[in-house]
Amino acid sequence: MPLEKTVGIHAVRDNAEFGQDVRNECHPMVIRAISLLMLAAVLAFAILIAFAPYGSPAVVIKAFYSACNSSDYPVAEGLLVPEANRVLTRHIGAVEGGLRGICDEATKQGHLQRVEILQQEVRGEVAQVRYMLYYADGSAIEESQGLVVKHWVWKIAP
Fold this sequence. Notes:
Layout: E1 4-7, E2 10-13, H1 28-51, H2 57-69, H3 73-78, H4 82-90, H5 92-95, H6 98-106, E3 112-123, E4 126-135, E5 140-150, E6 153-156
Antiparallel strand pairs: 1-2, 3-4, 4-5, 5-6
């Protein structure tokens, strides 16, 4: 019966032949490498989730109107494709007051009560959302908006 000694975290047999691997556990460097790879995978996943907070076109539409309704224009601007921002600041949108004017008109100066999604159609990286906007004065209006994926995130397209 071979004798065993405990050295560190490894049990080593006294009668082991030269070069024979007789450890009962993985080498600490292997465990450390596997742990680091797992940590890197978890961090990569967390970063992807952080940069893609809006998982569906319907969620983006609701977030946009919520931001507009509360006058949070930087958040609303971040939900638009860059081309839409250029149009709003340089062309026709600038005449109508830019994003602030568009938001104020769409929410009736912050009196939007709720957004109801009627239909969402997704085809690859393009989507179309139909929805109803309900206001404090009891009125409602049906709208439809196109969205596209830009850098793994749904954005409102003009």
